[in-house]
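Q: Cyclic nucleotide gated channel subunit alpha 4, please. Structure only.
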Amino acid sequence: MLRLNRFLRVPRLFEAFDRTETRTAYPNAFRITKLMLYIFVVIHWNSCLYFALSRYLGFGRDAWVYPDPAQPGFERLRRQYLYSFYFSTLILTTVGDTPMPAQEEEYLFMVGDFLLAVMGFATIMGSMSSVIYNMNTADAAFYPDHALVKKYMKLQHVNRRLQRRVIDWYQHLRINKKMTNEVAILQHLPERLRAEVAVSVHLSTLSRVQIFQNCEASLLEELVLKLQPQTYSPGEYVCRKGDIGREMYIIREGQLAVVADDGITQYAVLGAGLYFGEISIINIKGNMSGNRRTANIKSLGYSDLFCLSKEDLKEVLSEYPQAQAVMEEKGREILLKMNKLDVNAEAAEIALQEATESRLQGLDQQLDDLQTKFARLLAELESSALKIAYRIERLEWQTREWPMPEELVEADNEGEPGEGTS
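A: Structure for Cyclic nucleotide gated channel subunit alpha 4:
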């Protein structure tokens, strides 16, 4: 009996449940299903004990035990099981409407079932609370909490129109299951696994950008980790003309309009898969725009964009100098097509950079010469200090009129330290 659990493979069953809960896409629903299965098994075992106790006490002996199988309809196995299961369910759910026990064994059985029902009720409530808490925790991790923002706007007396826009933005995120904090969600994954997840989700979007085409796969994988999802509400400006460009944008979903300064006249409409601002995050010599935005971009509806900052791109390109040169060359080609590349200014900047590098090389050479001279002076200083120390020690022995040690006598014969023998 003690080894019956090995025959039933109960530990393997629990292990299978844990694996399924980890792999399933609906873990909360699986937890509820598993809880219902446990309840069914407990009621089944309890009904079997009830039927065994009824047989021990005698079928039909009183109203509490199972009726006499000799009566019509109670001799069938299915009826016996369903009656016992129903009776056990009434007791364990504390619904009531059960016959009063008449014998001591019946009282003990009822007391045990009531205690089991109390523990079962506490277990069920705890499990359901855990499921609800996990669901709320997942929502809080995926979507920002709008309650704090609403309270802040109310305390700061923000106008109602702006409050409505903020609330609509939060509702849009929840209704359409959009997340803006992917970095926080994936932060506990190992770096390599996090990179693979990001690549599978965003690499196709990043590879469509012209300036990143034909780049190394490892470079794109690192850039994918730097993409920040952003959602813009209707009528919201992504950038304005004259702003300093610190990031580029890739449209994932929605539509953006290139508008005039009045915010009404539309010059063009950008859709999913397009991008803008890529030139402003690369320092291209001779760029007539000066890394400033050249147009007003406004969201027509709710738009999902990927943002790549200039600092993140610079950090990644520091390890890929060849890719940086290729991207700068592509940027020059784009600026030439747009007639926004000053070739003379570019040549002047290149000449200035070469002159600066040449001057730096000269300074490096001068620094090396100074270090060599300093090392020589330091060696001469050490030699002079050693000579002075020997002279002082020799004078001390002479003034005391004591015979000098053999070392000093040999030094006098061979010459002072630091001097060559003649």
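A: Brief note, in case it's useful. The first strand starts at residue 228 and ends at 232.
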